[in-house]
Design a protein that fits this description.
By secondary structure, the chain is an alpha/beta fold. It has 2 domains: about 160 residues, 3-Layer(aba) Sandwich (Rossmann fold), CATH 3.40.50.1980; about 120 residues, Nitrogenase molybdenum iron protein domain (Rossmann fold, 3-Layer(aba) Sandwich). A 4-stranded parallel sheet has the order 2-1-3-4. The protein is globular.
């Protein structure tokens, strides 16, 4: 009997440190709302929102992007494991009506989430009807796959809208981790300063240009064009996979001739074949204008601010700006 009591006592002594380790593991970053020193687990639905979460959260967050680098975020399909992880995250940062699989997952697992759609004031797609009917059944099917509910989702190409989204992310992080609310809001203020400086560089850099029309592979640049007094002419509409009709190509050729356009802008994730042929036929050049939906090894910079700065230089060259 004494032998059994000794064994039980030894087991209890061994169990205590193991239990302590288990308790520590429960707060190792999988959740931060209950521990002022824990790291918040944050998921972002695609790169621009990942950038915001990383800048606003700083060292207090561990951010994962649902859309892998170098892939088209519109086409994201979530695995069951990703959906489960999304449900366990302390916060999801997403844009509704942009990635259908994310919208579905939000409905299924009801995560703690901030939808930046509510603060960035999306504008209507002026050419939605044209996109829907431009190329018959092929176009219609593609439009179903890229349903933006009649709105242009590419708000992040306007730095001022990015700043508004950063404030919303800061508020959501502060709610998830009140102990660090001041730090999150200070980080958002610092990011707003950077974004407003970027906005000013665009405004002054594009203020005196010989041209104002940009021909792009698809119409991702409406917010940028509106913000800085440019006119966007897309080979395709909001759906980058849509094939332009012969009539559309003739329209673009006429615009190029009438406006003296010297450059057609392509993207790293969109097949440049149509743009290359069009530019060759017209005797003009092509250049990359990055929609910053993702980062790739070919991106002209290591983050959103750097890629946008490279975009500014590409625009200044193409538009012959002073």
């Amino acid at each position: 009997m004494n032998y059994r009591r000794a064994l039980a006592a030894s087991a209890l002594v061994l169990a205590l440190p193991l239990a302590a380790c288990s308790a520590d593991g429960a707060n190792d970053g999988s959740g931060g709302s209950g521990d002022g020193d824990a790291t918040l687990s944050v998921m972002a639905s695609f790169y621009p929102l990942q950038f915001l979460a990383e800048r606003v959260g700083g060292d207090l967050v561990d951010v994962t992007s649902l859309a892998p680098a170098g892939t088209e975020p519109h086409d994201l399909e979530l695995s069951p494991a990703q959906v489960a992880a999304l449900g366990r995250a302390d916060l999801l940062v997403y844009l509704s009506d942009f990635q259908p699989s994310v919208d579905t997952a939000v409905q299924e697992v009801a995560p703690n989430a901030v939808d930046v759609h509510e603060v960035v004031h999306l504008t209507a797609d002026e050419h939605a009807d044209e996109d829907e009917h431009a190329d018959g059944e092929t176009e219609s099917a593609s439009t179903d796959e890229h349903d933006h509910s009649g709105e242009d989702p590419h708000f992040w190409l306007d730095p001022t809208r990015m700043a508004d989204a950063a404030d919303a992310v800061a508020d959501a992080l502060a709610e998830a981790d009140p102990a660090h609310a001041e730090e999150f809001r200070a980080n958002a203020d610092a990011l707003r300063t950077d974004l407003e400086a970027l906005d000013e560089r665009f405004r002054t850099g594009l203020a005196q240009c010989s041209g104002h029309v940009i021909v792009t592979s698809h119409e991702a640049y409406g917010y940028l064009a509106d913000r800085y007094g440019l006119e966007q002419v897309g080979i395709s509409g909001l759906d980058p996979e849509a094939e332009p009709s012969p009539a559309r190509l003739r329209e673009i050729q006429q615009v190029v001739r009438d406006e003296g356009v010297t450059t057609i802008f392509t993207e790293s994730l969109v097949n440049p074949k149509v743009a290359d042929v069009l530019a060759s036929d017209l005797g003009i050049t092509t250049a990359v204008l990055d929609p910053v939906e993702t980062l790739t090894k070919d991106s002209a910079g290591e983050d959103y601010l750097a890629v946008m700065t490279a975009n500014l230089e590409a625009l200044r060259t193409a538009l012959d700006c002073a």
